[in-house]
Amino acid sequence: MCGFFICFFIFAGYCHADTATSTATSTPDLTQPQATSTPALEATSTLPLPTLAESEAMVRSVFAADPIMIKIAKCESSFRQYNDDGTVLTSHNGLYVGVFQIDPKIHGDFAKSLDDDIFTLEGNLAYAKYLKNNSGNIPWPVCAKSAIGLTLNLKPGMTSSQVKTIQQILNQAGFAIAKTGPGSAGLETIYFGPATRTAVKKFQCAKKIVCSGTENTTGYGLVGARTRSALIQTALNN
Q: Which of 12, 20, 50, 121 has the most beta carbons within 10 angstroms of its beta carbon?
């Protein structure tokens, strides 16, 4: 699926889902695209269409427990399912549709088999949830990385909202900051303390980034470029 037209110009073909339907099973092969005939865009509904505010509210409701998907929706389409004239929003090249910019050529028929019409707001969100449940944030690579939002070098003693993000990623990936209390799953904090440092070190060693030294000598315990990249990829995979 391709990002909203701004995203399309910048990333030209990279900000889209590379998932697809499989010829061997009744469900899509979520790793290899398969060419099918491109369905015509469906006619605009004669029913009153949701406003942009209503569309955003529905996205936030459906993905209330998944803030990354809310950010992806904003990146892909600014929460827009329909144009001002009532037609379905498409990407600049006309290949991807709706809030989550889903490719009807690849996903349209299978989505309909799930009773998800990606040309409607409800169907677009429902099928996006199906994709998320089956392949994580990978279908939206550029927007997902942007949504995760790790940009800073982080070290012990720092306070930042991005510290909370790395704590969330580490907790979800099995490198618990704490079992209970501050830093534990659901109670992540913005402070980079000793427990976060320990979890970062375990993560770095497990990912074969660095296993010895200090923050100043080897970056052990410091969230620098390599560790940040590994954390982002871990978040995408999870």
A: 121
Q: How many CB atoms lie within 10 A of CB 42?
A: 15
Average pLDDT over residues 109-117: 97
Asked if 139 and 26 sit in the same domain, the reply is yes
Distance from CA of residue 41 to its chain's centroid?
26
Q: How many domains does the chain have?
A: 2
Sequence-distant (≥ 6) Cβ neighbours of residue 81 within 8 angstroms: 49, 50, 55, 88, 89, 98, 99, 120, 121, 124
Which pLDDT tens digit goes with each residue over 184-200?
A: 999 999 999 999 999 99
| Same domain (yes/no): 125, 163 | no
DSSP SS3 for 68: helix
The parent domain of residue 13 ranges over 5-146
pLDDT tens by residue, 11-31: 333 344 433 333 333 455 554
